[in-house]
Amino acid sequence: MTIGFRVLQRQRKVDPQVVDQFRELPVANVSDVMSRMTAAGSRLRPLHAGGILAGPALTVKTRPGDNLMVHKALQMAEAGDVIVVDAGGDLSNAIIGELMLAHAEKIGLAGIVINGAVRDYGAIRTSRFPVFAAGVTHRGPYKDGPGEVNVPIAIDGMVIEPGDLILGDDDGLLCVPFGDTTTIYADAKAKQAAEAKTMAATQEGNVSKPWVDETLTRLGCEGV
């Protein structure tokens, strides 16, 4: 099989129950309990009208400006999947547009992530079908390959393997590794509960933060 031009089958993916659990958590809380070390870069932004992205990754790696393998991924995808495309972050040519997104929504995908550009932004921004991308251009794609489906990809240092959990909200995009979902969910759920207590105390007027001066003193700050 040729490296760089191949279609593989996904060997595992996160369960729908796991996806539903994470859908209730802010991406920021999940990021915090992952030591703030995992991110897909600030350029990948939600372009749709609003709504949570959550589902197992079906990965695509393609050369910049070419979407042949994205069409193949659409043929292979299952309801609830998130197609994640690493197109090198190039913004010269759109990888996907309104027609392909209509196809994706029709077959029940949870969303699309493009490390590259999209077009037909007018339609995307009025739709609630989740689309994350690095930019917008009117220039269309090529369909010549090469590319790969269901291989590990990396977006700004965030490694995504086929079947990993993809999460996205207004703050950005995150990948939770397949084997770590149980631990990360428990930690993020506890983080969310702790923040809820802090918010309740703030609403009641308790805004004392003794830890600020304690930290400054420990660090040797003058004048505290």
How does this structure look, described?
The mean pLDDT is 96. The protein has 2 domains: 5-179, Glucose Oxidase, domain 1; 187-218, no CATH class. The radius of gyration is 20 Å and the shape is elongated. The chain is α/β, with parallel strands linked by helices. The strands form 2 sheets. Strands 1, 2, 3, 4, 5, 6, 7, 8, 11 and 12 form a 10-stranded mixed β-sheet that branches. Strands 9-10 form a two-stranded antiparallel sheet. It contains 7 helices and 12 strands. This is Putative 4-hydroxy-4-methyl-2-oxoglutarate aldolase. Its cofactor is Mg(2+); a divalent metal cation. It comes from Microvirga aerophila.
Give structural attributes:
224 residues, alpha/beta, Glucose Oxidase, domain 1, two-stranded antiparallel ribbon, 7 helices, 12 strands, 31% helix, methyltransferase, metal-binding
How does CATH name the architecture of the largest domain?
3-Layer(bba) Sandwich
Q: Provide the gyration radius in Å.
A: 20 Å
Distance between the termini: 65 Å
**Fraction in beta strands:** 25-35%
* Biggest sheet layout: 10 strands, mixed
Mean pLDDT: 96
Outline: elongated
Low-confidence stretches: none
CATH first level of the largest domain:
Alpha Beta
Keywords: Magnesium, Metal-binding, Methyltransferase, Transferase
Binding site for Mg(2+): 120
Cofactor: Mg(2+); a divalent metal cation
GO molecular function, one term: methyltransferase activity
SSE map:
Blueprint (H helix, E strand, L loop, with lengths): L4 E3 L8 H8 L3 H7 L11 E2 L6 E10 L5 H9 L5 E5 L7 E3 L1 H9 L4 E8 L2 H4 L6 E6 L10 E3 L3 E3 L2 E3 L4 E5 L2 E5 L4 H23 L6 H9 L6
